[in-house]
Q: What sequence folds into this?
């Protein structure tokens, strides 16, 4: 994987494309996350991040000039809720072949005021019931969805589907499925450390015996350090330390 740093951005191809827009080419670098784009000083109309390793569509600075963003062939599962604030003039978003699953995951796209062309082909979400109607409902400014022009009949049907009490309830239920997702594929769930409960009766007996048999001050000091590290003197049982700052590594002489 390649971190999107100054060196990568400084050497990435930047050119006028066929429609005379300034384009930044970051294709195929296996970039894991969007970062450091403020270095470009908002100097591009188009950014191409196709064929990378992005899992979230986030990390953008404020980029008022950006009109088109291409992020096909990544592993994106989530879209930043504030993405529209960072890319306020985005007109085209190509998100083909990613891992977006639920209709509710698309809700942030409804915040774009100028988004007219959107493509989500080859995402699991594109096979969901109500997919096209839901996108039309949530993103009223979009005119072309999955490279197909949205017809007026589709707009009327979507408006009818999500109107009234039942329609509002349906839209809310579809939206909630996206918000309910708590982790992404590949994310590691962190287990809370078990708090130290003190020694068991058996361990307490071993501690008393070890202190009783200590013959020198150095040995007593060594025992205290072992106990602070959550260890019974014979090393047979280990506990989480009372205070991680007090942990020390001891080697037997």
A:
């Amino acid at each position: 994987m390649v971190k999107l740093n100054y060196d990568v951005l400084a050497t990435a191809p930047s050119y006028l494309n066929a429609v005379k827009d300034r384009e930044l080419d970051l294709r195929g670098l296996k970039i894991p996350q969007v970062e450091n784009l403020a270095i470009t000083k908002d100097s591009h109309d188009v950014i191409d991040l196709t064929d990378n390793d992005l899992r979230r569509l986030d990390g953008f600075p404020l980029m008022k000039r950006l009109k088109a963003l291409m992020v096909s062939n990544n592993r994106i599962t989530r879209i930043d809720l504030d993405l529209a604030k960072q890319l306020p003039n985005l007109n085209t978003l190509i998100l083909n072949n990613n891992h977006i699953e639920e209709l509710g995951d698309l809700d942030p796209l409804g915040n774009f005021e100028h988004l007219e062309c959107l493509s989500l082909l080859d995402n699991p979400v594109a096979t969901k019931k109500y997919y096209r109607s839901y996108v039309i409902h949530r993103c009223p400014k979009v005119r072309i969805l999955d490279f197909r022009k949205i017809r007026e009949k589709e707009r009327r049907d979507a408006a009818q589907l999500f109107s009234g009490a039942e329609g509002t309830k349906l839209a809310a239920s579809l939206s909630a499925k996206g918000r309910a997702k708590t982790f992404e594929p590949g994310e590691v769930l962190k287990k809370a450390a078990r708090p130290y409960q003190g020694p068991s009766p058996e361990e307490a007996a071993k501690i008393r015996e070890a202190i009783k048999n200590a013959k020198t001050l150095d040995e007593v000091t060594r025992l205290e350090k072992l106990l602070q590290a959550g260890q019974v003197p014979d090393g047979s049982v280990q506990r989480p330390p009372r205070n991680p700052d007090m942990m020390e590594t001891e080697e037997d002489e």
Observations:
- The chain has two domains: 6-179, 201-246.
